[in-house]
């Protein structure tokens, strides 16, 4: 049976791991690699070429060169350019003292970080200087070597250059890929910001336009009948007061969401429901529009239900603004896969040159968001018609 203290330690392990600075495992890997490479270089001091010892320097110099070639790799992520300079200098000393003719692996590792972290012009300059310096040291070293390999100095210079270039190109490709990914993430964030602004604009427009349109109509009525029919003027003022309070409540709700850190979509989506269409119709009746409301729709997804509500709200707002007094018919029905909205009125003919307002644009956006269709325009016999069809089956509602 495990002891309580042991169990607590096991449960705390994920928390402790999260406290480790990001990238620590990479630094540890570099440190291990540097230690192993340092050990390998110490072994190079006792390597023979034929019957002769390859290394021509004293013991202390071999240790110093091995440290210069290998140990800086442990901190290459902190200081890429200085590490490259130390490694190249030590590799040149290794070549000139015949300590080794390995393909300058430490230089390639350092060049990878230089290409990854530094601007392209600076990293390319560092690459050129490193390859020329290392190639020159190899050439001079092999030109004075008494045990000359069959391949000659050109082979080794080209081989080391290709190895270093591979390290630099790998870092350059990774840097380019990360930059492209960062740009894509930034563009997605900008698109999300624009979409959120459009969502806010639609909500504010629907709340403000509907309330202000009703207020404007009732204020005009009250102004004209104030002297002769004070009772009707008082009724108009009561409607204005009620509408103003309702609009302020909705405005405060939206502004409260904007000021908080809560998800805007989650807060705005479930607000109005189809059960509130009767209240919308009653408000329009107070403004002089005779509304015939028919709702034959069952349960709808919250987002679709909000879109249907806002489309009806904006349509009634337009009737109040442009057609009152008039008759209006509102039909909302669904067949289990699609919900259809139709709002028609018998008001005066709409001028052909009247531009489409933000309300029509917002209604179209709400319908097309779910793959639906939307149309709005004058009726042949006068008045205006708004029609929308929004699918809400498995393929119709976005996740």
Shape: rod-shaped
Strand order of the largest sheet: 3-4-5-7-6
**Biggest beta sheet attributes:** 5 strands, mixed
Helix content: 55-70%
Number of strands: 7
- Strand content range: 5-15%
Radius of gyration: 39 Å
Task: Supply the number of helical segments.
Answer: 12
Question: What is the straight-line distance between the termini?
Answer: 47 Å
**Overall residue-averaged pLDDT value:** 78
Supply the helix-strand structural class.
Answer: alpha+beta
| SSE succession | HHEEHHHHHHHHEHEEHEE
Count of domain modules: 2
Low-confidence stretches: 265-270, 394-399
Domain DUF7134: 24-176
EC number: 2.7.13.3
InterPro entries: DUF7134, HATPase_C_sf, HATPase_dom, Sensor_HK_TwoCompSys, Sig_transdc_His_kin_sub3_dim/P
Transmembrane segments: 20-40, 60-79, 154-174
């Amino acid at each position: 049976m495990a002891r309580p203290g042991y169990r607590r330690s096991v449960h705390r392990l994920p928390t402790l791991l999260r406290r480790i600075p990001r990238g620590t495992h990479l630094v540890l890997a570099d440190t291990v690699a540097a230690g192993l490479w340092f050990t390998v270089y110490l072994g190079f001091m006792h390597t023979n070429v034929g019957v002769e010892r390859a290394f021509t320097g004293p013991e202390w110099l071999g240790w110093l060169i091995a440290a210069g070639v290998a140990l800086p790799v442990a901190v290459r992520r902190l200081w890429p350019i200085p590490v490259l300079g130390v490694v190249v200098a030590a590799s040149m000393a290794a070549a000139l003292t015949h300590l080794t003719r390995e393909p300058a692996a430490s230089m390639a590792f350092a060049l990878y970080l230089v290409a990854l972290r530094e601007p392209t012009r600076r990293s390319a300059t560092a690459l050129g200087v490193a390859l020329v310096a290392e190639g020159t040291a190899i050439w001079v070293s092999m030109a004075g070597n008494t045990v000359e390999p069959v391949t000659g100095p050109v082979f080794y210079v080209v081989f080391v250059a290709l190895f270093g270039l591979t390290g630099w190109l790998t870092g350059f490709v990774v840097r380019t890929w990360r930059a492209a990914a960062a740009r894509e993430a930034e563009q997605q964030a900008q698109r999300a910001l624009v979409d959120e602004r459009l969502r806010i604009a639609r909500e504010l427009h629907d709340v403000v336009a509907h309330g202000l349109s009703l207020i404007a109509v009732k204020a005009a009525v009250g102004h004209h009948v104030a002297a002769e029919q004070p009772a009707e003027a008082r009724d108009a003022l009561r409607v204005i007061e009620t509408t103003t309070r309702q609009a302020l409540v909705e405005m405060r709700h939206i502004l409260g969401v904007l000021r908080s850190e809560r998800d805007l979509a989650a807060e705005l989506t479930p607000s109005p429901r189809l059960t509130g269409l009767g209240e919308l119709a009653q408000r329009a009746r107070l403004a002089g529009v005779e509304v015939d409301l028919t709702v034959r729709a069952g349960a709808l997804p919250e987002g679709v239900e909000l879109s249907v509500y806002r489309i009806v709200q904006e349509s009634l707002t337009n009737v109040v603004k442009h057609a009152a007094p008039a008759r209006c018919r509102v039909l909302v029905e669904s067949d289990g896969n699609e919900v259809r909205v139709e709002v028609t009125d018998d008001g005066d003919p709409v001028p052909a040159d009247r531009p489409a307002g933000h309300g029509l644009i917002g209604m179209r956006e709400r319908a097309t968001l779910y793959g639906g269709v939307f149309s709005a325009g004058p009726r042949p016999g006068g008045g205006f018609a708004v029609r929308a069809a929004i699918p809400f089956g498995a393929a119709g509602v976005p996740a």
